[in-house]
Amino acid sequence: MTPASEPRTLRVAILGVGLIGGSLGMALRSAAGNRSDADSTNAGSTNADKLVVVGLDEPDVLQRAIELGAIDKRAANPKHAVQDADVVFLAAPLSANVRLLSEIAPHLQPGAVVTDMGSVKTPIKHEAADRLPDSVTFVGGHPMAGSEKSGIGAANAFLFENATYVLCPGGADVPTALVRLIQSIGARILVLDADQHDRIAATTSHLPQLLAVALSGYAAHENEADDNVHRLAAGGFRDMTRVADSSFDLWAQILAANHGPVLDALAGFSADLQRLRNRLAAEEYKDVRSRFDNARTFRESVPKSTKGFLRPLADVFVSAADRPGALNSITRVLFENDLNIKDIELLKLREGTGGTFRIGFDSDAEAERAIAVLVSDGHTAHTL
């Protein structure tokens, strides 16, 4: 009789168990059937008999990660985290990921795969080539997912569902183990060159962040001369500047790491903005109309069903009477139907006539369900 084969264990190390790393752990363990209340050996689409997720972070963070089911085991240091690991995810801030490369390099087993989850790919690609042994494969990674919240407490097993996950393998094929892990969390893989990724990120993420900061700053300056500016800077202005309240501590590392492409994007946009100003000054409105048409065409071509560099909300507009408790009646029915409000804003309110609330949801599906339950409760609700 042929003896039964030993169960194969896929060991994954996550270095940095915050929002991204914690969500990754929860998603991987959920896909593998390794829930906190059961010791399942069905690893599903990861193609292993058992998945073990090891986390590295501060002790209190690891304790919370254990409680939330984000990891199976905690490591005391980088060496213990990556020993015997098949795949290592670097999910710390950009500068910390670079430092971790040197710390883990001597302790990686031959054939291990190391990938990062940062938003800039070229610098760490070069650092990995210098610091990791030839027996290890490095693949740059950038999941297009995030939240306005941070930390392990905000981790969500569905964070990567339907999100684009960029991989930058540096010329070699992406290892099968990494592909299966990422597919198991519901993400869609897009393979790009690291330099190409960083140019695109500069245009679609880093430039919009700076423009939102600049536009908000300009409006604040104008508001010093006329404090009616902020009273009129409502819906459209808030939509365009939604990311202006982002943390500079986070963005300082991103802007420094992608310095060249960001400067190129700013220069290109500045030149285009000047051309638009010239057309307006010359009253060449036919050219301006063409710009509007081209902008509309491109925007309509941007996929609405997938998460990208900037994750927009799905907005629902709800009419409300000018009476006490109007907002409470709206939020109550949403709460009772497990609909999570991501953003809310009163667009207008005329005394005695009522106003309109813009309520942001995480997806179009949630927005559609919100409209259904609100209308059923007697409210007037719609999307644009």
Structure write-up:
The protein is α/β, with parallel strands linked by helices and 384 residues long. The protein folds into 3 domains: 184 residues, 3-Layer(aba) Sandwich (Rossmann fold), CATH 3.40.50.720; 106 residues, Orthogonal Bundle (6-phosphogluconate dehydrogenase C-terminal fold), CATH 1.10.3660; 69 residues, 2-Layer Sandwich (Alpha-Beta Plaits), CATH 3.30.70. Helices cover 46% and strands 17% of the residues. The chain has 14 helices and 12 strands. The strands form 2 sheets. The chain has an 8-stranded mixed sheet, with helices on both faces. The protein has a 4-stranded antiparallel sheet with strand order 10-11-9-12, with helices on one face. The longest helix has 32 residues.
Tally of structural domains: 3
**Uncertain residue segments:** 34-45, 348-353
In total, the number of strands is: 12
Q: Taking Cα atoms only, what radius of gyration do you get, to the nearest Å?
A: 24 Å
- Order of strands, widest sheet: 3-2-1-4-5-6-7-8
CATH topology description of the largest domain: Rossmann fold
CATH class of the largest domain: Alpha Beta
Pairing-aware structural class of the strands and helices?
alpha/beta
Helix-strand string: EHEHEHEHEHEEHEHHHHHHEHEEHE
Reported CATH architecture of the largest domain: 3-Layer(aba) Sandwich
Distance between the termini: 68 Å
> Could you report the average pLDDT, rounded to the nearest whole number?
86
User: What overall form do the CA principal axes indicate?
Assistant: globular
Please count the helical segments. 14
Helix content: 40-55%
- Major pleated sheet: 8 strands, mixed
